Give the backbone structure.
Amino acid sequence: MSDVYVLGVDMIKFGRFPDRTVPDLGAEAALLALDDAGLNIGNMEAFYCGNLGQANAMVGQRILQEIGQTGIPVVNCSNACATGATAFREAWTSIKAGLYDVVLAVGVEQMGTGLLGGSGGGAGIPKEGLLGSGTMPAVFAEAGMEHARQYGTTFEQFAKISVKNHHHSTMNPKARYQIETPLDEVMNAEMISYPNTKLMCSVNVDGAAAAVLVSEKKAKELGMQRAVRIKASVMTSDPYQERDLVMPDVNSCTRKAAAEAYEMAGLDSSDVDLVELHDCFATAEMLHYENLGLCEDGEAGRLIDEGEVELGGRIPVNVSGGLLSKGHPLGATGIANIYEVCTHLRGEAGERQVENAKIGMTHVIGLGSACGIHILEKV
Amino acid sequence: MSLPVVEYLKLPEGEEPYLEGHKCSECGSIFLGERNVCSNCFARDSMQSIKLNNTGKLYSYSIVFRSFPGIEVPYISAIVDLDGGGTVKGNLIDCEPDPDKISFDMPVEVIFDDALGRKDKDGNSYISYFFKPIS
């Protein structure tokens, strides 16, 4: 089977665009990625589009109505916060299967404001604040407190993750925020769900990202100079765990996906030069250091304390600023993190460049749960 | 007459309320709510209704300071492993919402009471369950 390459990839600067539409944002990202690949929509043989908020509204086709209606197959995907990675992986799968040589993937989202999640639905009376909380900050706080229970992880250690990611995004012009947040500011920010303060929650923003994926044959034909090889593409759902029904599990699906991705790539975690992982909350990032094998179980707190996951450290994590500061437009996130890793592998990340980056990993979690992992390699 | 807040809270006439689990007779997994197939071992028609215990230990929690409009905060959202099996989520009451006052594995009991005065659109009141520290 052919290797698959990312030939073009880009994202729009994340922000708030209430006067624009979902297809409009997706179209802008698609055109940026096509330009980056030196191709146009007429060259695309299929299109996989990821969006959550308008999952029943043919977003992919509406994007083509803005940039070129060529009659190619369009698949619209929705997979919670793994939506973008799902679209990207479907594009990868179609090339692996030998169906196509040049495929477009777009992830796009326009977000509201305020809390996500909650358990207010269903018959009878609202359950939120009666049977605990189903809000996302609380659900991920509970997952973080499970780590605290096992290893004594502290509020301060969780907060340091947010300090790091906000610092990283000061070097990323496409991030929502370029603002330093010192530790005392993070810890003293409004407490949303202990131990997650407001600055430890991802930012609701609008955004879009896109990638052009090609077969090896096509990459050789078009030029390999800026191509990035996809060494692994893996997706898992959550295997049975005894607390599943009350405690959504983001750990076992990530561990399973990471093991499969390392095996597919023929690599292990020590080969990885940078990681973009799903820091929807500061508490979540802590769990994934261990889930992705960046350290031994129980060592995650030490990793953040000793700066190993900072830019310049042993294994930089979320140098884009992550969801905490770059922002988290749900459907776009899983392609935006691929853009970030590709930018480093191409040596084009400017001030935040991870030196000599050759291998990078992206990870997303859609709660419920879906985990998508990609390992990318400099050609 | 009050209604149960969730399907797995049972209010048998003339008896104490209890939480109901469904236990797989093949692998022993315990679920909340009725089901036909075990999602752990895939056994079919192996589910048996059981009464869950009214005591357990605090597994994890968060203290919720911001919720949706109209929801009183702060409150403790608690995940409790019941003695004898089954994990349930609910509010931990009669405990200060302060991490220094909450400890993992602290013993709690399940109590049944009115659902914080919440009523449905037909005016029905509900019985809910809560966790309370055992001193």
Notes: Chain A touches chain B at residues 115, 118, 120, 124-133, 135, 137-138, 141-143, 145-146, 148-149, 155, 190-196, 240, 242-247 (CB under 8 Å).
